[in-house]
Amino acid sequence: MTHSLNVLNQQIISCRKCPRLVEWREEMARVKRKAYINEEYWGKPVPGFGDENAEVLVVGLAPGAHGSNRTGRQFTGDASGGFLFPALYRAGFANQAEAESRGDALRLKNMYITASGRCAPPDNKPTLEELNNCQPYLERELEIINPKVIVCLGRIAFERILKIYNIRNSTYKFSHGAYYQLPRANWLLCSYHPSQQNTSTKKLTVKMFDAIWETAKELAKRN
Ligand code: SF4
Fold it and tell me: CB neighbours (10 Å) of residue 95?
């Protein structure tokens, strides 16, 4: 499994399928934000990371230009990660609440974190074509990891998973805390994305987010 994930992650890191995103991610890495001017940005597609034997797979949207496009690790180095990792620590999925860089001591337990798109998009909005280009990487991760629970952070991740599983049933609706059964005894759990916009407006609170990870743990125990 380690070998398969390593091969996949190398494919992801060297991908240049979407010209607009290649240009954007590299330009952001060149120009940089003032606060990070002395840092070397990652500037490439961001692979998934975590426990390869995970029962819980988390799917986000796409890297932030100065977050994971800078650090090279999902949700690391931006406000979304600053909300996510403390919650994962409280729930026992992470060994620490802080996430600063690829080289820090953060380790995930029973969880793998990935995304619908691997390259930072302008305005945090990948196009449909770009998400379609990136989908095979997510499909391959699902095959390799075979999680019991998929947690979708945001509607875009939710719709991507429905597309992968070829689900057109209108009873599958995105709403925070909703969960559904997927083929092959997987569970699909919806959460609002921990974006700064959602957390600063209290659309997503700490309490609401903690409840998601408790539900994820409970679903992982079900058959
Ligand atoms: S978004 Fe995905 S498919 Fe497009 S260039 Fe990045 S890694 Fe490749």
Answer: 12
